[in-house]
Amino acid sequence: MTTQKGTRITQGQFSFLPDLTDAQITAQIEYALKQGYAINVEYTDDPHPRNTYWEMFGMPMFDLKDPAGILMEINNCRKTFPKHYIRVTGFDSSRGWETPRMSFIVNRPPSEPGFALVRAEGAGRSIQYTISSYAAQRPEGERY
Amino acid sequence: MTSQPLSAAAPQENSLDLAAMLRDSHALEVIEALDRELIGLAPVKTRIQEIAALLVVERARAQLGITGDQPPSLHMCFTGNPGTGKTTVALRMAEILHRLGYARKGHLVSVTRDDLVGQYIGHTAPKTREVIKKAMGGVLFIDEAYYLYKPENERDYGQESIEILLQVMENNRDDLVVILAGYKDRMDTFFRSNPGMSSRIAHHIDFPDYTPQELYAIAEIMLEGMHYRLSEAARAALREYIDLRRDRAHFANARSIRNALDRARLRQAKRLFADHAASVSRDALMTIEAEDIRASRLFRGEAAGDAT
């Protein structure tokens, strides 16, 4: 018996929905471009919720007019890292610094084993809880 | 049900009104503006009208469910001497393609070799790709495209850039239109060494040199834009100037005319000061006199390279 119903990572926007199709991704990017956001493609195979900084796939893309270019880059990234998590982030610079305004996952591994609950004994009888990814116990690049 | 004449009925499944589709796209306005504002260039205008017609037909076919495997290839090459309007037409082209629904955004990204080719190994591909991504949905205009290929240096990174461009021109036809521009002879050499590039460009458009009459008409349009006018004597002087200038070295068609007019404006300003008049009329401020044009070195019969 398992207590985890689904082990799909839920980070960023739309992550409780079924995976976005390319047409839906294009529509979201179209919105981001209309807002004047710079767009970045990132990937990781360590999807711990506290792992904020994923690896950048190329430079962030500024001054683009059309989503086709970003979709091309997403597909390049999918080809290079077919079993990694890939996310697209839109950064808003209107306040003087780049602020992530939107972020969503566009690629995930075929199977996601989920996280273990780890208990660490502290002083007295206190217990500290943390989680650890089953997949991340293997070395980088062999996780999924 | 009320009786309706057949012609007023909704369009039937098997017929479409091509003229109405062209009207609805508002591309005609741009084409007409192009016709009005650009003097001469007959072959260029014909080709643009053909392309517009093709795109409307293509759209009509799509509406009736007749679609081919490949969208039409619209990559172009503009060849011609300096100042014949290649960049101007490229700008309009982006607008026309946008209105006809071929280019989604209709912006023009104008680049030269420096924007595409890197300075060290591994620098070129990301650079070229970034430019391509920026141009997606619009037109990528590569000015002086022959510089991309330098035959004298076999380790030149230009070739890498050309290969990436070729790939994108083939695979992302509906995402961007590539327009190459350059002088005729150098572009011919460029295509000879890059046959793949030549065959992927469907439209090779040659920009002819302007005749003296056309140059004069261009000068009038330029002056109108600058809110100047020519006096009667100045008109004759300008015609003479054009005839003399055409035979000189470094003649750059419309660009030379623009420069000549700019210098005439300088001399006009100087003349207005030299007159020591207490006040100048609106008329005087707007009129270029014959002496402003005749002060040019050309009229003194000097053989110096670039005439002033």
How would you characterize this protein structure?
The complex is a heterodimer of chains A (144) and B (308). Chain A has 144 residues and is an alpha+beta fold. Chain A is 18% helix and 28% strand. Chain A has helices spanning 22-34, 68-80, and strands spanning 38-44, 55-56, 85-92, 99-107, 115-121, 127-133. In chain A, a hairpin with a 6-residue loop joins β3 (85-92) and β4 (99-107). The longest helix of chain A has 13 residues, at 22-34. The radius of gyration of chain A is 17 Å and the shape is globular. Chain B has 308 residues and is an alpha/beta fold. In chain B, the strands form two sheets. Chain B has a five-stranded parallel beta sheet, sandwiched between helices. Chain B has a two-stranded parallel sheet with strand order 6-7.
List the helices and strands and how they pair.
The complex is a heterodimer of chains A (144) and B (308).
Chain A: H1 22-34, E1 38-44, E2 55-56, H2 68-80, E3 85-92, E4 99-107, E5 115-121, E6 127-133
Antiparallel strand pairs in A: 1-2, 1-3, 3-4, 5-6
Chain B: H1 18-24, H2 27-37, H3 42-63, E1 76-80, H4 86-99, E2 108-111, H5 113-116, H6 124-135, E3 139-142, H7 158-171, E4 177-182, H8 184-193, H9 195-200, E5 203-207, H10 212-226, E6 229-230, H11 232-246, H12 253-274, H13 282-286, E7 287-288, H14 290-294
Helix pairs in contact in B: 2-3, 2-4, 6-7, 10-11, 10-12
